[in-house]
Amino acid sequence: MTGFVVASIGTGTIIIPPVANWLISSYGWRTSYIMIGIVALVFIILAAQFLRRDPEQIGQLPYGENGVREEGLNLQARGFSVREAIGTGQFWMLFTIILCFGFCLYTIMVHVVPHATELGISAAIAASILAVIGGASIAGRVVMGSVADRIGNRPPLIINFVLMSGVLFWLVVAKELWMLYLFAVIFGFAYGGVVALESPLVAELFGLSSHGAILGIIAFGFTVGGAVGPVLAGRIFDIMGSYQVDFLVCTAMAVIACILASLLRPSSREGGRK
């Protein structure tokens, strides 16, 4: 279910880049930012009016209600407080994993189009690479979310980072448009899969009693990586005159995340207090 919900992010990634490219060419980037911001604000506020906390508020019962409630009670019973979660090694491993993920994702989203134009590809076609990443991420979110329901969250997380590591290294040698499109498909699938697993993985490791707060702190790691990655990549490009070192750094970050993902295990409160 999480995979289906977050798949809408990929839909936006498909639609917005070509629309933004057209708006910028027609009205300039300043006006385009304002127009996209207004549309986003209106649609988000309207959509939020239809949200309900519980199906019972509209006279319905959740699908598989008994099983859902039983699992929810189990997760609640073994839930960690924020203080207890922060005291575990698993928390900091997951924080680092998501930081590395944010570093890789935003470095690519910011710099893959300039990289493509450096290779002689037109700006309009280069922008379509982002759309392909978004489309592939939809499949990644749905497929990996479904896989996680069957075999748990850790194995698909490892698979996603293996794919991401390999395809980021592929980007170092990718010089043709078809190679960039192949990169976009695999990277998008892997990135979408990680996004779908983030919230369920926090619940699996730390329970539901402080899920929102713990997830928020973990997500802060994503923003740290997302803030540092593009700036560092731009600085390296200015010095080296090439994106190859940047993509190698991203590959290393993805490998680190993969190794840490393989070490993740559910924590106990006793272990967390040691």
Summarize this, please?
With 274 residues, this protein is mainly alpha-helical. The chain has 11 helices and no strands. It has one domain (2-272): MFS general substrate transporter like domains (Growth Hormone, Chain: A).
Descriptive report:
There is one protein chain. The protein is an all-alpha fold. The chain has a single domain, classed as Growth Hormone, Chain: A, CATH 1.20.1250. It contains eleven helices and no strands. The protein has helices at 2-27, 29-48, 65-77, 82-86, 89-118, 123-151, 154-173, 177-206, 211-240, 244-263, 269-272. The longest helix is centred in the middle third of the chain and has 30 residues, at 89-118. The radius of gyration is 20 Å and the shape is globular. The model has no long low-confidence stretch (mean pLDDT 84).
List keywords for this structure.
83% helix; mainly alpha; Growth Hormone, Chain: A; 274 residues; globular
Query: Which sheet architecture does the biggest sheet show?
Result: none
Average pLDDT figure: 84
What would you call the structural class? mainly alpha
Order of helices and strands: HHHHHHHHHHH
End-to-end Cα distance:
35 Å
Helix content: over 70%
CATH architecture: Up-down Bundle
Q: What's the CATH H-level superfamily name?
A: MFS general substrate transporter like domains
Shape: globular
User: Whole-number radius of gyration?
Assistant: 20 Å
- Please name the CATH topology: Growth Hormone, Chain: A
Helix run count: 11
- Which CATH class applies here? Mainly Alpha
Task: Please provide the count of β strands.
Answer: 0
- Our count of domains comes out at 1
Poorly predicted tracts of residues: none
What is the beta-strand fraction? under 5%
